[in-house]
Amino acid sequence: MASGDVWILGIRMTKFGKRPDDDIIDLAAEAAMAALADAGVTMADMGILAAGNLMNAQAGVGQQLQKQIGQTGIPVYNVANACATGATALRTAIMAIKAGECDYGLAVGVEKLSGAGLLTGGSRKADDEEWTPHGRYGAVGGVDGRIGTEIMPGVFAQVGMEYAHKYGGADFELFARISEKNHSHSTLNPLAAYTKKMSLEEIMGDIMIAYPNTRPMCSANCDGAAAAVVVSDAKLATLDPDQRRRAIKVSASILTSDPWQEACQILPDVNTLTRMAATQAYEQAGVSPEDLDLVELHDCFATAELVHYDNLMLCKEGEAVPFFESGATWRDGSTPVNVSGGLESKGHPIAATGIANIWEVCHHLRGEAGDRQIEGAKVGLAHVIGLGSACGVHILEKAA
Amino acid sequence: MSGQIPFVDYLALEPEPHLVANECTSCGARFFDRRNACASCFATEFTKVPIGTEGELRSFTIVAFAAPGIPVPFVAGIIDCDGTTVRGNVINIEPDAEHVKLGMKVRLTTVPVGEDTAGTEAVNFAFEPLEGAV
Nearest-CA distance from A185 to chain B in Å? Predict the structure, then answer.
């Protein structure tokens, strides 16, 4: 049946964490080779390579990767789209197949972030000797810390606190309990950067970064890569039964940017574009939030996870707090969220994240997740958001 | 010259300190920087408008860990000034969750940043609790 669907034929993520002996090309090659092997194909089959990397966006990571694993002359797209880079790379490969340009595509996301510290844009420069206006706001000195905050833990703290103000019920302890869940989930994930369970007391008592986010409530900077091989419906129909059985259908692939909202120039609006992406994804896939057996969403901070329950419509509008308090998002709940450990515990090598979260969902849909398998999982959703902003939502389904 | 310079060009120090936005003459969307076309309706005419100096704290964080050179802790706030959202520090309040409250009323105030080598003082804005310093 040539439906025009695109399928994930092979997908893998590397171990996330400190990888001092591997450079970004080593990590990208490890993920790409593993995804190709998982798919049962080679570089000779690939019709497009989309390579996501944020911190070395000018480096031509895609071409460097080809030199490491196979140069065949295919088009390479080097992709950078903030924390949605991996999802954007995957979607680029999917679009090439949907456009009929090729039957197979390879998407890779890779990042080395160990020891990067806060993602702040560096330290404040010393002020000029004479006050001189600079930039779009005519600022005579550095504004971070003088006119609010620019650090990510602070920006996303404000995102969560804004939700708390709007709907009530969310406080430091509630946000910390979300982190407790994810740090508990990752104890079952051998590829996570951190696999140590943390108590609520440990999380709340850890170093405060930007209230209410303490250090374990922030995404873990680490090294890692993930890669996926996608294939057209028509080509999949010609493959071996075992390849077809393990193939995962991409039921929706959506990318949005932030539409104008009154406050969006002041505090990035991560809500509207996520809700837009989710709405489009559910419509494209023909599924509803109740159909989801698991969700990997962008918990770059504990404060962000709460608002995305609402944005992805996993709960009724304004009810993210009671939804979490019901236990719904724990791995034994009705809508398990971030059973991988999420960005807070599995880690967040930026460009790898948007493919690694899809790997996690596919792993369960294939029934191959071992100790952390969500039994009988048939439909899952993966979400990423990059500030600026870009939101990627993919809905994945087990082969019928 | 008063010997003062606003820290950013959307802060007006006279006659009383207030913020100034570029408002789209077509849809009323407000921007603190320049735009070629309105991000909301794509119109290309803008006019300067003063922003109200009192507002409500819609969100905040207390930054305890910042880039080198930035004194911590400090309160970073998102303030709703009569429908226009503004970013700024909240000062003249203890920087802890017992004192800083969502929804609290605040007003614009100014903060001296320091003098440069020519003796010009840079003046920044921030917000403080309306009900007096805590």
Answer: 27
A3 in B contact zone (CB under 8 Å): no
Subunit contact A153:B65, Cβ cutoff 8 A: yes
DSSP calls for chain B:
--SEEESSTTEE-SSS-EEEEEEETTT--EESS--SS-TTT----EEEEEEPSEEEEEEEEEE-S-STT--SSEEEEEEEETTEEEEEEE-SS-SSTTT--TT-EEEEEEEEEEE-TTSPEEEEEEEEETT---
> With a cut of 0.85, is the ipTM above it?
yes
**pTM (predicted TM-score):** 0.96
pLDDT digits (tens, 9 = 90+) for A29-85: 999 999 999 999 999 999 999 999 999 989 999 999 999 999 999 999 999 999 999
CB contact under 8 A, A128 and B116: yes
Give contacts of B7 with chain A, Cβ < 8 Å.
139-141, 143, 146-147
CA A41 – CA B21 distance, rounded (Å) = 57
Q: Does A122 touch chain B (CB under 8 A)?
A: yes
**Residue pLDDT, tens place only, A232-291:** 999 999 999 999 999 999 999 999 999 999 999 899 999 999 999 999 999 999 999 999
